[in-house]
């Protein structure tokens, strides 16, 4: 097979991240990002790794369809256009796969219908993922489009972790259960953590803390997810950039009955005006750090609430796993914010958890240990690579198809 390239599209609610990879040596040919889609200040940043050139385009990009067309144009300028015969497939991150999709799947009309049916439980993500797939399909109808689901890695969760304690009849009828998200990242990072320890994933229990704008924790036993902090939707669990994470469900009744808010208003409040942003007006951890350094009490409190929730999940997953070999920090905050990692594990020496100050201060793109020499539990920073993981899964599936099995 000559076609060895995979284009990966990670369409978020207001952004598209993309990478073009050659799977023969897993090298990156081009990477880029379109952000603030739908606003006047959209920006496309494209880097061609072969030539080393970077181009930026500023100005309104109306929607995901336009964003993808702009991406295709940028790729063409480098001779890497979607019309290339070397392209084997396009891999798409799809956030919600419900109970239906447990593995990467070649997209057809039936798959599109199912992803569409799941929009109510991933309203920020699935519509963007669908547009990405449809636009790519229109450009290359002959090419396999592969959906890689955020939920897939979590389908191994036992019923005790996946079910909410509500009436079974209702839960079953409306498929109200805990699905979990960021699974591609949790899978990649838990495996890479085992690699860092020089052990097989089957032998290692890991707590993975994916701390980006959206954030989630997972408990991974022997390579399989046994619990995760996001639930029916990506709203449950940790305090996030703009999402509340866990709260008493009665808060919603209260806001509706006493504050007179509509369900849509409450939805927007909890998803877009809560979390760090709701608490202090900033969702970026760098800005929160800067404000704390200036003595800003509001930023300090937001940080403390964020850390308190994170520590609760670390404790919970320690108990879920019984034996923990490693705690791995990943994604924008987890990879870059040493002060978050330090605060998350401070005072937990009794659990075998500690962070070495000098190791924690080291910056870099490589997976690395930050626990002291000889620590009972390894603490690691493991940069996530959702795009590489999506490309690998996509290529594995397409390769398999080619051999006719
Ligand atoms: N140098 C840094 N120090 C602290 N936090 C950082 C740094 N760089 C990025 N972040 C945090 O990472 C977040 C983005 O994480 P990322 O994983 O890229 O999120 P997403 O994929 O959800 O957009 C930012 O909002 C910011 O809070
Ligand atoms: C599922 C989810 O929360 O994704 P993201 O962090 O990309 O928003
Ligand atoms: Mg992310």
From TrEMBL:
Gene3D superfamilies: 3.30.420.40. GO terms for cellular component: cytoplasm. InterPro entries: Ac/propionate_kinase, Aliphatic_acid_kin_short-chain, Aliphatic_acid_kinase_CS, ATPase_NBD. CDD domains: ASKHA_NBD_AcK_PK. The record marks 182, 243 as: Transition state stabilizer. Its cofactor is Mg(2+); Mn(2+). Mg(2+). Can also accept Mn(2+). The keyword Lipoprotein does not apply. Pathway: Metabolic intermediate biosynthesis; acetyl-CoA biosynthesis; acetyl-CoA from acetate: step 1/2. It is an enzyme of class 2 (transferase). Its EC number is 2.7.2.1. Substrate binds at residue 93. Catalyzes the formation of acetyl phosphate from acetate and ATP. Can also catalyze the reverse reaction. Belongs to the acetokinase family. Homodimer. HAMAP family: Acetate_kinase. This is Acetate kinase. The gene is ackA.
């Amino acid at each position: 097979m000559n076609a060895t390239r995979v284009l990966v599209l990670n369409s978020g609610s207001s952004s598209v991240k993309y990478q073009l990879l050659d799977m023969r040596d897993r090298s990156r040919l081009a990477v880029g990002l379109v952000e603030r889609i739908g606003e006047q200040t959209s920006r496309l940043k494209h880097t061609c790794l072969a030539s080393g050139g970077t181009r930026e385009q500023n100005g309104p990009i109306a929607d995901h369809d336009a964003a993808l067309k702009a991406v295709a144009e940028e790729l063409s300028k480098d001779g890497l256009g979607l019309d290339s015969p070397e392209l084997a497939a396009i891999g798409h991150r799809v956030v919600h796969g419900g109970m239906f999709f447990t593995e990467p799947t070649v997209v057809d009309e039936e798959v599109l219908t199912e992803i569409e049916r799941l929009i109510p439980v991933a309203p920020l993500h699935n519509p963007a993922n669908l547009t990405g797939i449809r636009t790519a399909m229109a450009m290359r109808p002959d090419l396999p489009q592969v959906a890689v689901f955020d939920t897939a890695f979590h389908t191994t969760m036992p019923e005790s972790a996946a079910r909410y304690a509500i009436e079974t009849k209702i839960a079953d009828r409306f498929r109200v259960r805990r699905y979990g998200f960021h699974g591609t990242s949790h899978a990649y990072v838990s495996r890479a953590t085992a690699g860092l320890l020089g052990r097989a994933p089957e032998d290692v229990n890991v707590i993975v803390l994916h701390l980006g704008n959206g954030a989630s924790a997972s408990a991974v036993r022997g390579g399989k997810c046994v619990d995760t902090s996001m639930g029916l939707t990506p709203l449950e669990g940790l305090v996030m950039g703009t999402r509340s994470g866990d709260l008493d469900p009665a808060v919603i009744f209260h806001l509706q009955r006493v504050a007179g808010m509509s369900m849509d208003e409450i939805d927007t409040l909890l998803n877009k005006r809560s979390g760090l942003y709701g608490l202090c007006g900033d969702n970026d951890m760098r800005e929160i750090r800067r404000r704390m350094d200036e003595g800003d009490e509001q930023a300090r409190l937001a940080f403390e609430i964020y850390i308190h929730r994170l520590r609760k999940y670390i404790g919970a997953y320690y108990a879920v796993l019984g034996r923990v070999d490693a705690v791995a920090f990943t994604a924008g905050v987890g990879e870059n914010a040493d002060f978050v990692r330090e605060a998350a594990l401070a005072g937990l020496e009794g659990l075998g958890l500690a962070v070495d100050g000098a190791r924690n201060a080291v910056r870099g793109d490589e997976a690395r240990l930050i626990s002291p020499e000889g620590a009972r539990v390894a603490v690691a920073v493991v940069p996530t690579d959702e795009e590489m993981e999506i490309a690998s899964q996509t290529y594995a599936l397409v390769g398999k198809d080619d051999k006719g099995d």
